[in-house]
Amino acid sequence: MTDATRLQPGDSAPQFTLTDQDGNQVSLADHAGSKVIVYFYPAASTPGCTTQACDFRDNLNSLVAAGYRVLGVSKDELPALQKFRDEEHLTFPLLSDPGLDVHTAYGAWGDKQLYGKRVTGTIRSTFVIGEDGRIEQALYNVKATGHVAMLRKKLGVAA
Q1: Catalytic, out of 18, 36, 37, 49
Q2: What pLDDT shows up at residue 125?
């Protein structure tokens, strides 16, 4: 994947409508005028993705207090998302993108290194979308551990 396919600060955030873990339609447009954190993770209930999701869960109150909403996106089907939410007591929407259309629009699907091998898959990525619908932060190849603390620091959000 080349950088040309990646979003940059100032770009308009690609619009989407996806189904959440409960079967509800969630659109980025539903959050117009709000600050939104959209993060892409490879697979529900895997160790790194669980660490990252629980980190968002544990820091959600400070993010919400600062005006941010959090949406998690994966290629998982609804039963996997429901199980993940229930097992980890996640309190933000988990969105299903099995066709990878939204992953592709955000540059979060492509070639990556996994255990020293080149594979095609979800590129763990986080996007901060401003109230104007533009990308404020486009973070690719983020680490699951410590990511939310780094993000809060970038956003100036206190614990």
Answers
A1: 49
A2: 97
